[in-house]
Specification:
By secondary structure, the chain is α+β, with helices and mostly antiparallel strands. The mean pLDDT is about 90. It contains 3 helices and 7 strands, in the order αβαβββαβββ.
Length: about 130
């Protein structure tokens, strides 16, 4: 699931699972390269005997002055993922917004702009 989400977001902005990688931060002399996004998936909640619900949080970070960059990236990711259906060999995936869907989160570093998108991802596994 992570692979598919990263595959969809990566053309829009550099994307990582869970958090910015420590080794990449070390390679950049302790500095993160902006903009970037992180994808965090919470454990599956059984929906019924055929499907699971997953909560997915996507955080988008920017260090540009103003909000244009972070808002543009957030819009693009939202449009790419909301109300999408994916059919894979082993599963069927539906992605839709989860309310509250779009949050403006403050960062302790006032130079950083952060937005969070929340999605509900339903997965249906196919019998093999």
């Amino acid at each position: 699931m992570y692979d598919y989400l990263i595959e969809q977001i990566q053309p829009i902005v550099t994307c990582y699972t869970d958090e910015y990688p420590q080794d990449k931060e070390s390679a950049e002399n302790g500095a993160k390269v902006y903009p970037y996004a992180t994808v965090l998936m919470y454990s599956a909640i059984p929906n019924n005997e055929y499907s699971n619900n997953n909560l997915v949080y996507i955080d988008i970070w920017s260090n540009k002055h103003g909000i244009e960059e972070v808002e543009t990236l957030t819009d693009a990711i939202y449009k790419k993922l909301n109300k999408i259906t994916i059919i894979k060999d082993d599963m069927f995936i539906q992605i839709s917004r989860y309310n509250p869907c779009r949050l403006n989160l403050n960062d302790p570093d006032v130079n950083l702009k952060r937005r969070q998108l929340r999605f509900l991802v339903k997965t249906y596994e196919r019998d093999q």
